Structure formats: C-alpha cells, structure tokens
Amino acid sequence: MTSAENAGDQSLPPVDPRSLLVFREVGRLGSLTAAADALGWTQPAVSQHVRRLERVLGVPLAVRQGRGIEITQAGHALLRHADAVAGALRDAAREMDDHARARAGVVRIAAFPSASATLVAGCVRVMAAQHPGIEVRLSQLEPPEAAAALSSAECDIAIVFAHASAAPERFTDFDRIELLADPVRLVLPPGHPLADQGALGLAELRGERWVGGCPSCRQHLLESAAAAGFTPDIRHSTDDYVVVQALVASDLAVATLPSLALRASRNTNVSIHPIKRHPPRRVLALTRRNAQQITAVRATLDTLLAAAERLPVE
C-alpha cells in the first residue's frame, strides 16, 4: 500500500464495531426500545450508540417517526456493512470454536425448491452418515431471498441459479462455487404434434399457450422467446414444477423446466425435449468471504459438489 493510500485510510472516520452492531439491531427491529430489549440494555444506552455513530460519520442514520424511527438512506447503506460485519464475526467465532473443540456444529443451507429436493436432500443424507457431528439444516428460499439471508448471516450456504441471460455478477459479494450446469428443457403434452421429435427450437412453439414459472424463469422465457422472434402467450403462472407438468399433461399449455426440476418430480404424461442452441443455467453455492475455512462449511460444500457430480441430467 502506498503512503498516499495510508494517509487516505487514516482520514476515514473510526467506526466503533460495537456501535455498528447496536445500530444493526435498531435497523433489524425498527425501534430503539425493541433493540434495547433484545440487547438487554436501556433505551438511552442504545440511543447513545446511534448518536455516536452519527457524530463520527457526519450523517443522520435514524429519525423519529411517530413513536418509532425511520432509517435514513445513509442508515440503510450502513446496515449492509453492519450485516457483513456481523456475519464475519459469527464465522470467526465458529472457526475458532472448530479449533478449540474439534467439532463441527450446525450448517444452515438456503436453497431453491428443485435444488432442495435433489442436491440438498442427497447432501443431508451423506453428511449424516459421514459427518455425524455436523447438523445440516435447510431453509427453502428463492435465489434473491437466499442471498439476502446469507448477507445477514441467517444461513451459511446459499444455493442459487443464474440464467445465461442474467449476470451472475450480482453475487460477487460472496465466494462462489459452481455446482453444475442445469439444462433447460421443453415440456410438451404427449399428444403434441412435435412430441415424437428430439431437440426443438423455441420458435417452433411460437403459436402455443405457455406456463410461466418463477419470476426469474418467466423473465428468462420472455427473453429467450424474444431472441427467437416471438412473444410467448403466457396463460398460467406458477413456480411449482409439479403444477407446471400437470397443466402441460392436461394439454392446457407447453412450458420450459430446468433438468433439476424434472429430476425432482417427473410427470410421465409429458414429453421432454432439449432446446436447440439454448445455454444451461448455472447452479452456484455461495458463502460469505472466507467462510469456507470453517470445517463444517467446507465439509458440506465438498458433499454438495459430490452430490452434483452424481446427479444425472433429465
């Protein structure tokens, strides 16, 4: 680091980590009183920490609003850093606990539904057999919610997906491991005129009625269809892949589904087709920075990678 950079760092206001974590509780709970109750402090003590931060940083962080408070724009920006600090401290404590006790503890995974039913289910089974000291817990969340839970230290591993048309760079705040490439398939009724064909182009289904999936999947369908020269007639919307296949099997629409969803639950009354020149979506495991050094997290990631390698493509 240059002397100029050192001088720049020294000019930055010193942020008290304790006050930062107190402010995090205020932002999380929405009031000084609730934060004081959660911390076991008095309300004036909590208020003093918030005011100290405001004096040091030179910006208002919270303003009174009726009986409660409202977090300012600067306050919300600071809360993102407070979440990162809280997560890093928690990871540091867990890593030290690993060293001190030589045990692993609990690993919390947040994953979208089809990954939960395939990758995570297999991971939990193997972990119970091979690492009985590690308890793996699952919360089912879509990628945006899973990433938010990871940021706020509410989970340790977030399993997310990113379509080729969506920039996975939005996950650059985390360490990333690519688990697998998940092909997207066309799902047709068994009596469809193209049901006996192999790979199909999206444009061949331009006149069909469609089922739209989760918000990200629906957006991907719209973008892919637009690239193929048409706008899909989306008649139904559901993020439940069992319902999607039931609608298709009833000859009410056609759909696209990722291979993981078809692997998790396969309706035998539909036909499945690769899509020509259509890139797969990427399935990623996210962790907070350096969290992979924690014994339990590393073991769980290794088991997820092994489960992904064993998983056949539908």
From TrEMBL:
Lineage of source species: Bacteria, Bacillati, Actinomycetota, Actinomycetes, Micromonosporales
PROSITE patterns: HTH_LYSR
Gene3D superfamilies: Periplasmic binding protein-like II, Winged helix-like DNA-binding domain superfamily/Winged helix DNA-binding domain
Residue ranges annotated for the HTH lysR-type domain, each copy included: 15-72
Keywords, in A-Z order: DNA-binding, Transcription, Transcription regulation
Descriptive protein name: LysR family transcriptional regulator
Family, as annotated: Belongs to the LysR transcriptional regulatory family.
GO terms assigned for molecular function: DNA binding; DNA-binding transcription factor activity
GO cellular component: protein-DNA complex
Native species: Winogradskya consettensis
Keyword DNA-binding (UniProt): yes
Annotated TM spans: none
InterPro entries in alphabetical order: LysR_HTH_N, LysR_subst-bd, WH-like_DNA-bd_sf, WH_DNA-bd_sf
Superkingdom in the source lineage: Bacteria
